[in-house]
Amino acid sequence: MVTVRPAQPTDGEALVAVHVAAIRELGSSAYDDEQIEAWAAKKDPSGYPVEEETAHFVVATRDDDVVGFGHLALDAAEIRAVYVHPDHARDGVGTTILEHLERTALDAGLEDLSLLASKNAVEFYERHGWTSGEWVDHESTGGVTLECLWMEKSLPG
Questions:
Q1: Which domain of life is it from (predicted)?
Q2: Which architecture, in CATH terms, is 3-111?
Q3: Residues 6 or more apart in contact with residue 116 via CB below 8 angstroms
Q4: pLDDT < 50 stretches in the chain
Q5: How far apart are CA 11 and CA 13, in angstroms?
Q6: I need a surface site. Which of 3, 10, 23, 155 has the fewest CB within 10 A?
């Protein structure tokens, strides 16, 4: 069973581990080695906005292990992250995180959300009712450009 809870500063190392593993394994189907290494670079345990007031930052756990995370920027009505460790991919973890973030946005009174999807994640979001916008160049943390897709979704209600 997967549980979603607010992320804590003590989750930093686990967040980095999930983030880097997901990028390297799941992102490699859509980007070249240079892009993957740049995207995975410079991840710092203290660099996740787990205590920011306008950030709804959560982790997904299974048997007390962090297996994924999500970030909803409430002030921007934007989902900024849904990452799942590859050992738990395609097992409902990403869906659980995404549904939690969407419910939180709806409860906060938001009507529409946007996100910037990596090429390897577009199909996942489309399956969950997100629609495609335009392709854009996004600069990774390592300074390399990744082609990503702006997507949006109107929330029910």
A1: Archaea
A2: 3-Layer(aba) Sandwich (3.40)
A3: 78, 80, 136, 138, 148, 149, 150, 151
A4: none
A5: 6
A6: 10
